[in-house]
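Minimal example, chain plus iron/sulfur cluster.
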Amino acid sequence: MPKCIIDGKEVEFIPGENVVEAAKRAGVEVPVFCYHPGLTVVAQCRMCAVEIEKMPKIQTGCSTKVTEGMVIKTQTENVKKARSSVMEFLLVNHPLDCPICDKSGECDLQDNSFKFGSPYMRSTEERRAYVDLDMGPVIQKNMNRCIHCTRCIRFGDEIAGIHEMVALKRGNNTEISTIDGKPLETDYAGCYADVCPTGSLTLKDFRFNKRAWFLKKTATICEGCSRGCNMELHHENNVAHRCIPRVNMDINKYWMCDEGRFNYQYIKDELRISQPRVLNGGEQQSAEWAIAISRARAALAGKKAVVLVGTDLTNEEGKILLEFLPKYLKGTPVFHFGTPGVTAVADDAPADRILKRKSKTANLHGIEKLGFKGLSVIPSGTEAVLVIRAGRAQIPDLTGVKNRVGIGVFDQSQTEDWLVVLPGQAFAEKNGTIVNYEGKEQKYKKALNPPENSKPLSETLMLWMNSQISGGVS
Ligand code: SF4
Ligand code: SF4
Ligand code: FES
């Protein structure tokens, strides 16, 4: 690999790499605002100032490609002065919002100001203030905090494929807005908050929920479709607060869609069933596990039944079912389900030109590879159904099937007339393997404990087996 010198140290670089990235790999921070590795380089904030030998003026590290033998200095007096001047300029209009700003604690402006800015401000002029128009359901705008880096405009144009963010007016009056003040249209609007280096664009869903420094971060996978975007789940005290994309250049790069980003909310939905429930006199009630299992068995016994296995389950869960079902529900047909209109891997295809896939569950490809066949329609004459799912697979129309039993994640509105529901674990509450549409195996990582009396699928099936062996509880 070719080499350059950064702050006196010999450093290898990848041909075509810019100074910011080469320095980052060498453990040297070159601060940035307008630069984002997933967007085009515009070099307009000037924060990434560096000195390069044989070049008389200060250069911008984001727009300068490293060349063999280049000597780069990031800590000279000139560089420090340039950065501090940029910070002073950017803060001329910035309000003292950190105590009430959701970006606080993870804000590039705050961090760079602390590390590279001056403690003194010379301006005495009044600060500019904007009236903010609503940007739709996903993003809260606060233009007083904007530093006009244009990352948001470039994200819309280059990644979301929609020219909806623009810079209105010029100079001191510049304002980032949507065209004609319309709500944002892209299905990837959450990414505007990710790319914004300040608290100008924040997520409405996360706003005033939790300070960033209290959050624990678990690296996991989105379960929203068969792409399997890498993401972090942020949580505290067993409550999930948000999901943000995690970089994986082979799968989702820096991005994720809004459907995947906000999918986690069902985990903490107050309608989610977290105690075994049985139907008594037309009304569902909580029950002991042993009684509920016994009722579940009775609901299926001697009837023409089918088992529906969600493609939101992990491979590990699928394998357990492959052992359990032939022994304990002998002869009962088994099908996988998850997305209307996607009954097999062959039906899965891109759902847009960015990331989304047609299969709205994460493990269609893994479950089908294990040997489960897809459900087209519920066979006529079916009298009982056992639905096993993790919360994401869409329950098919079960009209006409009287005896319904569920294992896994359900909410009360979905199952109010079901005979039995045995509560299980959602994707964030377990470890497990899923296979994406390209055959890549990825892992869910447990971030949360399942609520109240919910159990892992393996434990529920163990109780079922024991109940069957011992004759069950009447
Ligand atoms: S809103 Fe955020 S991303 Fe957009 S220009 Fe302002 S600071 Fe940059
Ligand atoms: S594209 Fe699919 S996997 Fe990626 S964030 Fe959206 S729903 Fe999740
Ligand atoms: S990060 Fe290089 S000019 Fe903005």
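Residues 77-91 form the longest helix (15 residues). The pocket of iron/sulfur cluster (ligand 1) is lined by residues 146-152, 176, 195-198, 200-201 (CB under 6 Å).
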